[in-house]
């Protein structure tokens, strides 16, 4: 009697911060080091840990390091790639900027927050980051899944939201309550800011009728790495009344246009 055993191949999902790391094609060069992490080969990966926090880094070449953490999705621990640190210079990392890191640690890391200097220490003896790391013989295909940081947590945009993010500016964002207008708007702003190689002459504007929403959006914007760049500092969140008051000299003899005229423009 012959027994046929069929092994079903599964995919190992690895999450990555899209607005920081860009397109998943960029991550192909890090496949070997990601595989080492999934295999539990921490010593080979030259693992370092941010003292007191669930944030790690691994060497990807002779000078650069990859920042990552772990998150739980549907009861399963997943690798989340955060940033690439060039020349081992942690102080220049977009993720490790105080405004960004503070929000991430307070919401996503269950350990006590250290008030001292950020220090990375060797972690060669660190136990497995998940209960059963895969063996080299059972290595599963890696599938990268992009996530965005919104309101102190990582989220996955829907296909419809992803399409909306590609909308060229200027744009009007509308939709029902809870449809994701705010996270799409922030993603569009991040995308616009990251395209600048120099500081834009004019500010990038987010205009809304709600003063509370403008304040909330500005607060969430300051949590993002893009907001720490020189171009990101040019983003303004205004109410329509504030915008008109700011531009009053230019608009004094102008006629206000409605939404139909704007869409035509």
TrEMBL record:
The lineage of its organism: Bacteria, Pseudomonadati, Pseudomonadota, Gammaproteobacteria, Legionellales. This is DUF2075 domain-containing protein. SUPFAM superfamilies: P-loop containing nucleoside triphosphate hydrolases. InterPro entries: P-loop_NTPase (IPR027417). It comes from Legionella taurinensis.
């Amino acid at each position: 009697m012959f027994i046929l055993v069929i092994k079903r191949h599964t995919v190992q999902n690895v999450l990555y911060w899209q607005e920081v790391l860009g397109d998943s094609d960029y991550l192909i060069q890090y496949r070997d080091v990601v595989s080492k992490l999934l295999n539990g080969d921490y010593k080979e990966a030259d693992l370092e840990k941010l003292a007191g926090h669930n944030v790690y880094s691994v060497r990807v070449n002779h000078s650069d390091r990859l920042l990552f953490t772990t998150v739980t999705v549907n009861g399963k621990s997943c690798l989340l790639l955060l940033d690439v640190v060039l020349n081992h210079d942690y102080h220049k990392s977009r993720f490790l900027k105080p405004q960004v890191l503070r929000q991430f640690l307070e919401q996503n890391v269950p350990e006590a927050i250290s008030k001292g200097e950020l220090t990375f220490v060797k972690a060669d003896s660190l136990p497995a980051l998940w209960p059963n790391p895969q063996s080299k013989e059972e290595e599963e295909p890696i599938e990268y899944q992009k996530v965005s940081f919104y309101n102190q947590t990582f989220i996955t945009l829907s296909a419809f939201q992803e399409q909306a993010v590609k909308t060229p500016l200027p744009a009007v964002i509308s939709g029902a309550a809870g449809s994701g207008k705010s996270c799409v708007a922030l993603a569009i702003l991040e995308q616009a800011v990251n395209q600048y190689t120099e500081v834009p002459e004019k500010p990038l504007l987010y205009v809304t009728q709600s003063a509370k929403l403008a304040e909330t959006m500005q607060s969430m914007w300051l949590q993002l790495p893009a907001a720490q760049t020189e171009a990101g500092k040019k983003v303004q969140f205004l109410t329509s009344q504030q915008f008109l008051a700011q531009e009053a000299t230019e608009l004094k003899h102008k006629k206000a246009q409605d939404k139909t005229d704007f869409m035509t423009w």
